[in-house]
């Protein structure tokens, strides 16, 4: 069978690292090819090369048996290659429609033929069951929706080859399932797909062949039918990984670390506001929030952190009213927050790793004294944190933009976990993180809980919520509709509450 | 590790400078063609520039002073992604305040009173710069527009002051100017250059640049400025108040601009003249961009720009090229160099997009 894509002996270096070292990947026509590997293994790098976004130092690319050389993504797009990037490439102030048709605009004379574009896009949305509001601005829609926009954009360009760089990292299980369906449909239509993910079940589910990378080299490849999850994880990490999280028996303290009393938030474009939410988190307790993306999780995290005001109701931290406190004051009182969108709020791309790590402590001793920074302490602590949280980088003076997606997430986690919080809001803490580091982050969360902190875990992955939480609350359309203790309900029951088909009349515990 | 960053910084600087030199050569070639086509000797530009950096170094130093300071005034807010296009207006305000205080002081005050003069100028500049900053923070007006428009206010206010309020009644000349300052309040000249236009203002400029570098690289304020500039959402999430940072950088920028005004008055003009400022603030933008908004780099690019503008003056003086042609020559140089900066920015954007 012919190969659709051959990446031959690709080498690509960046200052301080070799991201791809003599990597060869062969992808058959009409297959779904899984590309796996730890954070920083070089997956995005080699896909960017295939998409013409960067040039390899050495090696060549063949498409359908012919050597090609791309000067820019435009060349790749013309050859029928589409890519959904790990960090979306959308213009934040433009509408969804404009973003989709950018660079591929139907024209009537010299004007944009919006009608035709809308009709075509509506067709695609219908055919594949993807729904987004074309008139909304990108900066108003959720991460899951941005993902859909990127996919529609690729489909709209009628791609023959589609690269999906960690598309499922930001999706809920149901959304993931429908994405996998779309992928199968595209495959039936003769499309060749490359699928990057850290979730092995998805790999086993849809792929035909896989290639595994580690530290810039290929460590294994072969048909998926010859693989299983243990074998794959051994190829990825190089050793067995346990998925058990060591956790002590649940015995919460009697102090309330967080209490929300009837909190509502204002309506914002593209956001689900909170309606009359009450919630208690005790010392030594993990409260998990289950819900379909876009049901008020964002507002929940942000209203506690102080990023948005509560319209009514009150928020208490350690039994003290903080409803009117500034963000800084709340942080000083022991609040930590891993935000759901690491690029928009969690990190400053042009700042160095060390500057990103210092956000919570730069104005404290020993990192600064009377406004003068102590560079030595800053660097030392940054290096320690990078090492402890497995951030792969030559040193912490590189800008955070040079890190791979998962490593960027680890920097955010390192900063927020290390400030010894009283309350930790962890929104999608393991988003885009490889299996080894996911395990590490979950273990850390468990450790924080065992040392008497309160944790609010917001995650699109129901599995994660169920495995970690002592108490699960289900959020639907901005309201808390159900509450369970660990083990009280199974996935299916929780799923029903998540979709709004059921709700508990009286919530206990409030 | 520490040495590592420094090596990186130095390497970057060297590469940037050598690229600029290439662009300068290109600019000079374009200018020579332009001069030849217009019927002047193409070598006048070389003569002018050559003298600016040799016999007439004092003139270059005189012009470097405001260039460096204007570069600093631009780069402080720029780091926080705040664009102060009103440096010129703030310079005028500084000059007015400096003249006012200097004339109000008793006749034979000691030179140390200059400190008061400079302080007044810095405060006036800062207050004037705070107007657009406050409007931006509390009413979300566009700071680019307001700073730009306030330049006219500054300029006309100076004209008004020089022609009406502070005009020297004893002089019956046509010039709109205030009384001359007492000699003991003149900023001293650099003795090494004899009776030239080079003055100790250059020391002030260097000191301000070093202070700005310290502020940027070594203090928590610098950290906040950088964080706000690179991602305002992130800054807010960390509890940094962007509005305070905006007020802070604008006040600092205005203060530095005010000092330019004070130096122009006390060292060069020795009185308030209606339009003494040839658009230094806008040159400051190029100076700052050229240095990638790094205060240490501004020292070099400011000196370089001082040389260029002095070179233009020299060219005018030693050849028969009229003033307007020198201005065109300057514009060509600025355009060529900023074209290079724009290209660099575009390239960087493209690379950033590829991650
Ligand atoms: N522009 C860049 N400058 C410097 N280093 C870079 C750059 N882009 C990537 N790297 C480095 O190359 C390596 C591979 O990065 P890449 O983004 O390909 O990883 P990845 O396999 O996609 O990881 P993840 O699963 O976390 O997304 C990393 O060590 C990263 O730090
Ligand atoms: Mg990646």
Structural features, described:
The complex is a heterodimer of chains A (510) and B (355). Chain A is α/β, with parallel strands linked by helices. Chain A has three domains: 3-237, Rossmann fold (3-Layer(aba) Sandwich), CATH 3.40.50.300; 254-334 and 423-510, Rossmann fold (3-Layer(aba) Sandwich); 350-420, no CATH class. Chain A has a six-stranded mixed β-sheet with strand order 6-9-10-3-11-12, sandwiched between helices. Chain B has 355 residues and is mainly α. Chain B has a single domain, classed as ABC transporter involved in vitamin B12 uptake, BtuC (Orthogonal Bundle). Helix content of chain B is 74%, strand content 0%. Chain B has helices spanning 2-37, 44-52, 57-79, 87-104, 114-139, 143-165, 201-218, 220-230, 232-237, 242-269, 280-290, 295-318, 323-353. Classes of the chains: A alpha/beta (510), B mainly alpha (355). Chain A binds chain B through residues 44, 48, 53-54, 87, 89, 305, 307, 326-331, 337, 339, 344-351, 355, 358-360, 362-363, 368, 371-373, 375, 379, 383, 395, 397, 401-402, and chain B through 1-2, 4-5, 8, 218-223, 226-227, 230-231, 233-241, 352-355. The complex binds adenosine-5'-triphosphate and magnesium ion. Adenosine-5'-triphosphate (ATP) is lined by residues 14-15, 17, 19, 37, 39-45, 86, 392-393, 402-407 of chain A.
């Amino acid at each position: 069978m012919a190969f659709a894509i051959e990446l031959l002996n690709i080498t690509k270096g960046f200052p301080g690292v070799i991201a791809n070292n003599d990597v060869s990947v062969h992808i058959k026509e009409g297959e779904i090819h899984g590309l796996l590997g730890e954070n920083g293994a070089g997956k995005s790098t080699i896909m960017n090369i295939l998409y013409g976004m960067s040039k390899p130092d050495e090696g060549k690319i063949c498409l359908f048996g012919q050597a090609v050389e791309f000067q820019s993504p435009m060349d790749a797009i013309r050859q029928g290659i589409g890519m959904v990037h790990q960090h979306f490439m959308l213009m934040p102030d433009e509408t969804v429609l404009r973003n989709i048709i950018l660079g591929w605009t139907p024209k009537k004379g010299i004007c944009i033929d919006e009608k035709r574009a809308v009709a075509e896009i509506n067709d695609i949305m219908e055919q594949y069951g993807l729904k987004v509001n074309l008139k909304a601005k990108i900066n108003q829609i959720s991460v899951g929706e941005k993902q859909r926009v990127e996919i529609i954009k690729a489909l709209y360009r009628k791609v023959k080859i589609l690269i999906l760089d960690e598309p499922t990292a930001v999706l809920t299980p149901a959304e993931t399932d429908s994405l996998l369906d779309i992928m199968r449909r595209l495959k039936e239509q003769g499309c060749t797909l490359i699928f990057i993910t850290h979730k092995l079940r998805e790999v086993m589910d849809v792929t035909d062949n896989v290639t595994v990378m580690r530290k810039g080299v290929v460590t294994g490849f072969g048909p998926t039918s010859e693989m299983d999850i243990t074998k794959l994880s051994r190829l990825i990490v190089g050793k067995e990984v346990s998925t058990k999280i060591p956790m002590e028996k649940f015995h919460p303290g009697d102090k309330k670390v967080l209490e929300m009393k009837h909190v509502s938030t204002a309506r914002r474009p593209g956001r689900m506001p909170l309606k009359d939410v009450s919630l208690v988190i005790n010392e030594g307790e993990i409260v998990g929030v289950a819900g379909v993306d876009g049901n008020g999780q964002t507002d929940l995290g942000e209203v506690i952190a102080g990023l948005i005001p509560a319209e009514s109701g009150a928020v208490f931290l350690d039994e003290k009213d903080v409803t009117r406190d500034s963000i800084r004051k709340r942080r000083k009182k022991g609040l930590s927050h891993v935000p759901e969108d690491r690029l928009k709020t969690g990190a400053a791309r042009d700042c160095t790793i060390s500057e990103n790590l210092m956000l919570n402590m730069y104005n404290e001793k020993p990192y600064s004294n009377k406004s003068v920074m102590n560079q030595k302490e800053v660097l030392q602590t940054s290096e320690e944190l990078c090492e402890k949280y497995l951030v792969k980088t030559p040193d912490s003076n590189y800008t955070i933009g040079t890190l791979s997606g998962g490593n960027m997430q680890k920097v955010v986690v390192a900063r927020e976990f290390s400030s010894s919080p009283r309350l930790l809001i962890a929104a999608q803490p393991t988003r885009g993180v490889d299996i080894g580091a996911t395990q590490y982050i979950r273990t850390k969360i468990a450790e924080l809980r065992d040392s008497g902190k309160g944790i609010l875990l917001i995650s699109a992955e129901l599995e994660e919520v169920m495995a970690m939480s002592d108490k699960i609350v289900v959020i639907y359309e901005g309201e808390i509709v159900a509450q369970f203790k660990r083990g009280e309900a199974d996935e299916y029951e929780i799923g029903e509450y998540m979709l709004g088909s059921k709700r508990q009349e009286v919530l206990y515990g409030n | 590790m520490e040495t590592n960053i420094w090596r990186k910084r130095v390497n970057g600087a060297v590469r940037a400078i050598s690229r600029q030199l290439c662009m300068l050569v290109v600019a000079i070639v374009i200018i020579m063609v332009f001069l030849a086509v217009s019927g002047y000797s193409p070598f006048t530009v070389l003569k002018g520039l050559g003298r600016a950096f040799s016999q007439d170094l004092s003139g270059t130093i005189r012009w470097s002073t405001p260039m460096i300071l204007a570069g600093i005034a631009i780069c402080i807010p720029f780091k926080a992604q705040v664009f102060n296009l009103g440096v010129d207006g703030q310079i005028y305000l500084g000059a007015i305040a400096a003249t006012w205080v200097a004339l109000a002081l008793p006749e034979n005050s000691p030179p140390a009173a200059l400190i008061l003069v400079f302080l007044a100028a810095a405060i006036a500049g800062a207050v004037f710069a705070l107007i657009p900053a406050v409007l931006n923070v509390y009413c979300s007006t566009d700071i680019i527009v307001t700073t730009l428009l306030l330049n006219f206010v500054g300029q006309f206010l100076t004209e008004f002051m020089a022609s009406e309020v502070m005009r020297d009644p004893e002089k019956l000349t046509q010039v709109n100017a205030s009384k001359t300052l007492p000699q003991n309040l003149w900023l001293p000249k650099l003795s090494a250059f004899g009776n030239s236009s080079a003055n100790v203002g250059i020391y002030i400029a260097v000191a301000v640049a070093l202070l700005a570098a310290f502020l940027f690289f070594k203090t928590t304020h610098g950290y906040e400025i950088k964080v706000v500039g690179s991602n305002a959402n992130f800054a807010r999430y960390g509890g940094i108040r962007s509005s305070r940072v905006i007020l802070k950088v604008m006040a600092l920028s205005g203060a530095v601009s005010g000092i330019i005004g004070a130096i122009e008055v006390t060292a060069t003009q020795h009185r308030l003249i209606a339009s003494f400022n040839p658009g230094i603030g806008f040159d400051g933008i190029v100076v700052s961009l050229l240095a990638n908004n790094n205060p240490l780099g501004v020292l070099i690019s400011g000196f370089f720009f001082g040389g260029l503008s002095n070179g233009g003056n020299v060219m005018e003086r030693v050849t028969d090229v009229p003033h307007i042609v020198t201005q065109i020559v300057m514009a060509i140089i600025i355009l060529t160099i900023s074209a290079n900066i724009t290209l660099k920015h575009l390239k960087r954007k493209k690379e950033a997009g590829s991650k």
